[in-house]
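Propose amino acids for all 330 sites.
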């Protein structure tokens, strides 16, 4: 088989996606090293970071690491800076992305490091929708756990309610709900989507206060994106920003921490049309069969299709999110 034939007929594995960790520099140690954590010597393997050393012993202070995910192909990104520790050689550094160097002494209870962690945790909380008791991640949220461990009663920089700047909840997908008001921009979902699943759906877009998780296809909603509904983004999300449908209201038990009432803001809902997992190939087929209600019903798995469903199709076409012009945020 010729190489010319291969290049003409075999499509690439991925097309036009921006990777996350593929271009990240190495952050681990070159070989096995021994560091001292709060006076306790710890030997870690090659490729280890200071966070690995902290997790191997009982530290004097709690050190949350909200943007860290314990997989080599996701992060670390050092975006939340809630894992700051003090070292004798480099001062205050993020433990998740600092290599474990031979002979390095680390303190978790140093005043400067403790204050840095507290400030950064409060900054994350101040830009978060603190509706813990009605959140689908209540009881399994890493931000909630960190706030409880650090005994945070009220973030020093206020909360999202004080500004009233809520983004609409994206409820368009049949499989995953996106609440960007709970996103801490840890980048885990982007890397899980691009580097692990290699789907190339998500990206970080915007800058400053307008930074948000978006779609590489420039879609406005999850349902209009090229998402294949694998669910990995929701699996790695540390908060309730990405939650599987069916779990969005599953945990409403009272737990310590923040107990404000329900979510605030508009919701981008799904159309009434039945849906199914949308691979890029299926999306292309859907585009070619637009305007044919029978084909749409067959594609969605509806066996007994009749003309009564025309009313549902009419309702869908009047929905600003399914109209050709794309609509605008409600």
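Proposal:
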């Amino acid at each position: 088989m010729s190489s010319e034939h291969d290049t003409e007929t075999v499509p690439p594995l991925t097309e036009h996606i921006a990777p996350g960790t593929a271009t990240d520099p190495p952050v681990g140690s070159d070989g096995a090293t021994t560091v001292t954590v709060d006076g306790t010597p710890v030997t870690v393997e090659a490729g280890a970071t200071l966070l690995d050393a902290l997790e191997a012993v009982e530290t004097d202070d709690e050190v949350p690491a909200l943007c860290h995910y314990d997989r080599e192909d996701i992060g670390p990104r050092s975006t939340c800076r809630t894992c700051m520790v003090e070292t004798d050689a480099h001062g205050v550094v993020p433990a998740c992305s600092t290599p474990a160097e031979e002979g390095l002494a680390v303190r978790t209870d140093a005043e400067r490091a403790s204050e840095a962690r507290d400030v950064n945790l409060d900054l994350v909380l101040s830009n978060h929708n603190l509706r813990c008791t009605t959140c689908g991640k209540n009881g399994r949220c890493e931000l909630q756990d960190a706030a409880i461990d650090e005994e945070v009663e009220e973030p020093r920089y206020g909360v999202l309610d004080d500004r009233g700047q809520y983004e609409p909840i994206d409820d368009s997908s049949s499989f995953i709900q996106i609440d960007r008001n709970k996103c801490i921009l840890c980048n885990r979902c982007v890397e899980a989507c691009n580097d692990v699943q290699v789907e190339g759906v998500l990206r970080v877009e915007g800058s400053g206060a307008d930074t948000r998780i978006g779609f590489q296809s420039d879609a406005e909603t999850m349902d209009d994106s090229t998402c294949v509904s694998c669910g990995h983004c929701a699996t790695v999300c540390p908060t309730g920003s990405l939650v599987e449908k069916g779990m969005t209201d599953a945990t409403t038990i009272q737990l310590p921490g923040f107990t404000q009432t329900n979510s605030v803001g508009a919701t981008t809902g799904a159309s009434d049309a039945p849906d199914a997992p949308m691979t890029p190939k299926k999306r292309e087929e859907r585009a070619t069969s637009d305007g044919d209600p029978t084909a749409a019903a067959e594609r969605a798995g509806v066996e007994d299709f009749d003309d009564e469903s025309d009313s549902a199709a009419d309702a869908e076409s009047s929905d600003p999110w399914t109209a050709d012009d794309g609509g605008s945020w409600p």
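The chain has a mean pLDDT of 74. The chain has three domains: 21-122, 128-270, 279-312.
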